[in-house]
Structure formats: structure tokens, C-alpha cells
Design a protein that fits this description.
Elements: H1 8-18, H2 23-31, E1 34-38, E2 47-49, E3 62-64, E4 67-73, H3 76-82, E5 88-93, H4 94-100, E6 106-108, E7 116-118, H5 120-128, H6 131-134, E8 147-149, H7 156-168, E9 173-182, E10 191-198, H8 203-214, E11 223-227, H9 235-241, E12 246-247
Parallel strand pairs: 2-5, 4-6, 10-11
Antiparallel strand pairs: 1-4, 1-5, 3-4, 6-7, 8-9, 9-10, 9-12
Helix pairs in contact: 1-2, 7-8
């Protein structure tokens, strides 16, 4: 499914999926943005609801991969793509919503190409502003202090999901590798890295992989993707020291 951003929040979300350095900008936009949540109840009506002081609402929850979430949407378009029947929905500032639902895990844009899981802990960091301290922009480049190596325990669910996508849909991917990266200057824990080599056009590859990454749990997050296109500075490491988890069959 193609993704056409409906607003600035969605533009910044799409960029943040593949560019770690864009994530702080996404969080800032989110704090100032209106999001949409689906209300529960037995008599749904396709209309917007405004909260008044002291009012309580019942919100719809969804289960994804055995975990319960409150779904929210970055636009009415994303919500309508997810739920086709008439519903009563709540339009509310994201910070206000997070304050009202503290302790709950939230899923942004379920069913969409671009979405994000927010754990209760991450939501707390958005509310108190500490997310911006932890999210110093950092891009893996040549000649840095970043340490890179194989994971002690590969993220099996993620790698299986990516392998299936490469076999069935992303057939121009030649090979893909999994590693962990850690920068002592900016990181508190290792990050999961997926490096992908492909032929032809690859604009949709990172988008599709990002969608898969949003649907699984890994021990070390965030999950980051790089293209092995000759300019990443990591081609030599992966080709000479790392075994691919996916290698396209050739004749």
C-alpha cells in the first residue's frame, strides 16, 4: 500500500522511520499535533467527540502479536484505512492523550506502512522531555568511535519477517546482514542494525522493512537500516567479516 502523507506529522514520521537523525524532529511535531483515537461503545457514529472537563471516555484497544495497545492515528485517513465501519472518534492533542492514558502502550497507525509502537516508558520520556536527551542524532559513518559486531542473540522474529519479504516481495534485494552498533558517546545500549544490498531501484525497500520492524519486538532497539550502496563506509566490514542472514538464490 502506497503512503501519501496527509500532514506534517506524517511527513516527519515517514522520514524518521529510515533516518535516525530525523527522530527528534518527529517527537517535537508529535507533541504539537492532534491525533485520533477510536472510542468504544455500542452505538458508534461517524463523528468527532470533544472532551470536556471531568469527562471520561472508553477507548478501543487492539491486540497485536499477543500484546494489547491503544491504537491512535496521525490523520483521519489512517484511521479510515484501518476501520471501515462508522465509529465515534476522539481528536485530541498527543500530549493530552498520553497524559490521560499513562501506563498504557500505544500503537500509532496500525495497519499502515508507517507507524510506531510507544511503550509506556517511552511515552513518559516524551511527556517529561527526556526523549530528546536520549535521542541525540547520530548517523553511522566512517572514521567514528562506533563499535560494530555480530549480535549475541539474533532477533529471530525480525530476521524471519525480513527474509520472507525479500523472497516474496522485495526480490531485488541481493543480501542482508544483521549487526549491533554502539557508540559510547551517545548510546546507553547497543542498537540493532540491518544492512541491505540490492540492485535497481530501492526507494520502497526501507519503507517495507520499516513496516516489518514496527510489528516485531527486539531486545535492542531502535532498529536501524542502512543501504550498502558504496557510500555507507561499512561495506568492507559486512562483506569480509559478517555472514548474511539473507542471500538471494542465484543460478
Amino acid at each position: 500500500m502506497s503512503f501519501e502523507p496527509a500532514n506534517t506529522l506524517e511527513e516527519k514520521l515517514a522520514k524518521a522511520v529510515s533516518e535516525p537523525s530525523a527522530r527528534p524532529d518527529f517527537y517535537k511535531e508529535l507533541r504539537d499535533s492532534e491525533i485520533y483515537a477510536i472510542q468504544g461503545g455500542t452505538s458508534p457514529v461517524q463523528e468527532r467527540t470533544e472532551l470536556t472537563a471531568g469527562q471520561s471516555v472508553q477507548l478501543l484497544s487492539v491486540e497485536m502479536n499477543g500484546k494489547r495497545y491503544l491504537p491512535i492515528f496521525s490523520s483521519l485517513t489512517r484511521m479510515q484505512d484501518f476501520i471501515k465501519e462508522p465509529v465515534q472518534y476522539l481528536a485530541i492533542n498527543a500530549v493530552h492523550f498520553f497524559n490521560l492514558t499513562k501506563g498504557a502502550d500505544v500503537l500509532l497507525n496500525p495497519g499502515s506502512s508507517f507507524g510506531k509502537e510507544f511503550s509506556a516508558r517511552e511515552i513518559e520520556s516524551i511527556l517529561d522531555g527526556s526523549v530528546f536527551n536520549a535521542q541525540e542524532a547520530y548517523v553511522v559513518e566512517k572514521n567514528t568511535q562506533t563499535m560494530i559486531g555480530p549480535p549475541a542473540e539474533p532477533p529471530t522474529e525480525l530476521l524471519e519477517g525480513l527474509t520472507t519479504a525479500f523472497h516474496e516481495r522485495l526480490k531485488n534485494v541481493i543480501c542482508a546482514y544483521n549487526a549491533q552498533v554502539f557508540n559510547p558517546r551517545t548510546d546507553r545500549a547497543p542498537r540493532t542494525l540491518i544492512a541491505i544490498s540490492y540492485i535497481g531501484k530501492g526507494d520502497h525497500i526501507i519503507e517495507e522493512c520499516g513496516k516489518i520492524a514496527e510489528s516485531v519486538q527486539v531486545q535492542y532497539s531502535p532498529i536501524e537500516f542502512i543501504e550498502l550502496n558504496g557510500s555507507s563506509g561499512l561495506e568492507s566490514y559486512f562483506e569480509n567479516q559478517c555472514k548474511p542472514f539473507y542471500l538471494k538464490d542465484t543460478f
